[in-house]
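Deliverable D2.4 — example input (structure tokens):
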């Protein structure tokens, strides 16, 4: 069998090494820290597969996020798997009414299995390097309130501890302490939970993973969503030229049409637009298009109003609620988590219109 034949017939998906059920991901990694009411939605993980030693700076008005690499480079899209696993452990405990803490202890072998990684010696070495990038990548952001500007810096994780057998250096236990930013953001957005397909961990290309993340977050249960190629270029964090990015995008879309390997969604390129639609089997778990009556009957918890009031900027909450419901009617859709949606809308409204 020749080399070309092997390359032609290679599936876009990695082999399913360790079958595991779906689990939950808290969608916090594309947003600025919780005190920043403007969601910057910039990529915090590099798409590069080789050490990325480039500083990144993303701006949104007067606010910014700066990323500085560790000695092994910026944290990668694949490094994010570790955080997804940690947050999933926390969410499972929260869903069971248990307390959660910043420091988590678990088996390194379990983490590798759940995230569909190799459990060989090389797999453990790659895990150790990934932990170093997560701790070493420095994130700096500013928060402007009136005449005061506060600049803060942090990492994805504060520390990690590896317990290994001395005879073969294989990891036995793993202890990870999440940063305050990750831990607090998880608590703040604990109601805004997205189910992540386990096939996410089988996607070979970092760009495919990023496209799935954006589709899951932005399209969700809607009939369709679209991005301009230029917008996707920025949102994915690609460093390729636009022309090359568009070529890669088209190749991924063509492969997805052929293999259906990107879970839950289809992608179609129409000129300068990329159209995203949920697959039929994925859409079946959601209701039919919502009626005005159904939107009127949405019930918001009292604690949701308490949270929203902190971000309301002096506006009457009932006015903001009416604006939010009007927006839902225009979109003809009810969000998966109405409470998180309302709080998010309040933050967006104040960012766009300013304080009352």
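Example output (designed residues):
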């Amino acid at each position: 069998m020749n080399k070309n034949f092997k390359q032609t017939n290679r599936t876009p998906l990695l082999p399913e090494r360790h079958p595991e059920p779906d689990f939950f991901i808290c969608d916090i990694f594309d947003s600025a820290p919780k005190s920043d009411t403007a969601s910057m939605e910039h990529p915090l993980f590099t798409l590069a597969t080789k050490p990325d030693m480039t500083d990144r700076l993303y701006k949104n008005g007067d606010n910014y996020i700066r990323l500085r690499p560790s000695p092994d480079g910026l944290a990668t899209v694949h490094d994010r798997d570790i955080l997804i696993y940690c947050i999933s452990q926390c969410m499972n405990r929260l869903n069971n009414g248990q307390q959660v803490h910043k420091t988590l202890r678990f088996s390194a072998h379990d983490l590798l299995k759940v995230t569909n990684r190799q459990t060989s010696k090389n797999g453990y070495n790659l895990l150790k390097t990934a932990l170093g990038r997560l701790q070493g990548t420095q994130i700096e952001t500013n928060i402007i309130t009136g005449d005061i500007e506060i600049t803060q810096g942090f990492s994805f994780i504060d520390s990690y501890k590896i317990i290994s057998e001395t005879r073969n250096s294989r990891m036995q236990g793993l202890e990870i302490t999440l940063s305050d930013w990750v831990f607090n953001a998880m608590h703040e957005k604990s109601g805004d939970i997205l189910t992540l397909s386990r096939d996410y961990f089988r996607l070979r290309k970092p760009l495919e993973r990023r496209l799935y993340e954006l589709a899951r977050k932005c399209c969700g249960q809607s009939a369709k969503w679209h991005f301009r190629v230029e917008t996707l270029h920025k949102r994915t964090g690609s460093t390729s030229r636009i022309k090359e990015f568009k070529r890669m995008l088209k190749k991924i879309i063509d492969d997805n049409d052929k293999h259906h390997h990107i879970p839950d969604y289809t992608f179609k390129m129409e000129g300068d637009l990329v159209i995203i639609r949920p697959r039929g089997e994925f859409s079946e778990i959601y209701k039919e298009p919502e009626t005005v009556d159904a939107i009127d009957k949405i019930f918001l918890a009292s604690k949701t109003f308490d949270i929203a009031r902190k971000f309301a900027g002096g506006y009457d909450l009932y006015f903001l609620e009416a604006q939010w419901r009007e927006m839902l009617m225009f979109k003809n859709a009810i969000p998966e988590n109405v409470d998180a949606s309302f709080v998010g809308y309040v933050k967006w409204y104040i960012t766009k219109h300013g304080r009352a």
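The first strand starts at residue 23 and ends at 26.
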